[in-house]
Each structure stands twice: as C-alpha cells, then as structure tokens.
C-alpha cells in the first residue's frame, strides 16, 4: 500500500465510468460516515480524497490508482441518506450508487461504512439488499470508533451483527476503524493486499 496513490477519474454518472481494468474496491456509506477520510487514512495521503464536516461532499464516483499501477483502484462514492440535499441530487446519487454496485465486473469488494455512533439504518439496508443481488463480496466497517466509549462500541457491534443476519452474503466479521487514530488500518490494508493476491 505504500507508494504513490493518485486521482485518475471522476464520474458523475454511470455512463462516464473509466474502462474496466484490474481490480476495484469501493467504499459506500451514508453521507458524512467517513468514506473519504478512510481512503486518506488507508493510503497515508492526507488530502487525496476531499473531506468535509458537512455531508454531501463527495458528489461523484472518484477513482484512485495505487502503486500497483493500473491493476488496483480505490473508489470513493457519494454518500446516501443525506435528506437535506435537493431531491433531484438525492435521486441521481442513489441511482448512481445502486447501478455501480450492481453492474461493475471489476468491483472485487465493497466496504459498507457504518458510523459507530449511529448503527445500521434503513438506507444502509437498501444498499445491502442491492449488494446481495450482485456477486460482489462485501463487509461492514464501523467508523469513528474514537468517538464512542467501549460499551457503546460493543452495543453497536451487537446491533449491526443482528442486522446482518438478514444478509448471509455479507462477511460476518466487522472491521472497527478510526481514521483519526489509525485503528483498523493495518487490518483493512492486509485484507486488500490479500484480495490483490487472489
Ligand atoms: P460525504 O462525501 O459527504 O458522503 O462524506 P464522507 O463519508 O466522505 O465523510 P468524510 O470523510 O468527508 O468525513 C466527514 C467528517 O467526519 C469529517 O469532518 C471528518 O473529519 C470526520 N471523520 C471521518 N472519519 C473520522 C474518524 O475516524 N474519527 C473522527 N473523530 N472523525 C472522523
Ligand atoms: Mg466523501
């Protein structure tokens, strides 16, 4: 994972995606859950993906290419479930997300991010249902673990694991992360290195 990560492509719609090549790993989740921050923490590049305190920052599918040259890409996605965005934007992001997750043969894994303070919501279930219909492997990542007490984190784990029972296609194991402290990054990097090697 060490090395030169760079931005290669941004796509506001499903018609303008980059050619399918190599392997892709995408990060999905509600607005503000910490998708872009996680990409920065993983790659060790502070400002590779644009982040913001306010939801709705990432508005396109953003592709980053790794040190493995053209063979491995990370995909930052717009967030879903941001109720205050204009209705037309919500509709276009939602269809972009669902279409991409279902119809991309280079997509090797999707990490679905869940804020450890908020747990699994209805809009997350919608995305998990879409992933169940696609052949892609997916796993839940709890984010912002630095913001909750150990007891709250334990409760969140129990609740999310219960919500996952409806989704046997998901990895049963959750990854617990914090982009602020770096917790969980070695595990996530190792999982992706394993994926590249398969
Ligand atoms: P959208 O692109 O708007 O969907 O958001 P996003 O999911 O990409 O979230 P982003 O990475 O922009 O982070 C949103 C806010 O959460 C920012 O203020 C981040 O600094 C903060 N944040 C992200 N990860 C963490 C974390 O692990 N711990 C803490 N404390 N804050 C975090
Ligand atoms: Mg973002």
From TrEMBL:
Source taxon at top rank: Bacteria
One Pfam family matching this protein: MMR_HSR1
Record's GO cellular component terms: cytosol
Gene Ontology BP terms: division septum assembly
Record-linked InterPro entries: G_ENGB_dom, GTP-bd, GTP-bd_ribosome_bio_YsxC, P-loop_NTPase
Cofactor: Mg(2+)
Keywords: Cell cycle, Cell division, GTP-binding, Magnesium, Metal-binding, Nucleotide-binding, Septation
Family affiliation: Belongs to the TRAFAC class TrmE-Era-EngA-EngB-Septin-like GTPase superfamily. EngB GTPase family.
Protein name: Probable GTP-binding protein EngB
């Amino acid at each position: 994972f060490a090395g030169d990560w760079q931005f290669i492509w941004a796509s506001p719609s499903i018609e303008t995606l980059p050619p399918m090549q190599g392997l892709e790993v995408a990060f999905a989740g509600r607005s503000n859950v910490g998708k872009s921050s996680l990409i920065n923490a993983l790659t060790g590049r502070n400002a590779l993906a644009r982040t913001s305190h306010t939801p709705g920052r990432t508005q396109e599918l953003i592709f980053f290419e790794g040190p493995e040259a053209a063979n491995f890409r990370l995909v930052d996605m717009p967030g879903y479930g941001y109720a205050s965005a204009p209705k037309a934007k919500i509709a276009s992001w939602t269809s972009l997300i669902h279409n991409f997750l279902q119809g991309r043969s280079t997509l090797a894994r999707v990490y679905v991010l869940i804020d450890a303070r908020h747990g699994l919501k209805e809009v997350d279930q919608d995305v998990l249902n879409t992933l169940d219909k696609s052949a892609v492997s997916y796993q839940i990542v709890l984010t912002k673990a630095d913001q909750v007490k150990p007891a709250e984190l334990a409760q969140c784990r129990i609740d999310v694991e219960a919500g996952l029972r409806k989704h046997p296609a998901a990895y049963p194991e959750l990854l617990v992360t914090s982009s602020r402290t770096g917790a969980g990054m070695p595990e996530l990097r190792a999982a992706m290195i394993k994926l590249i090697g398969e």
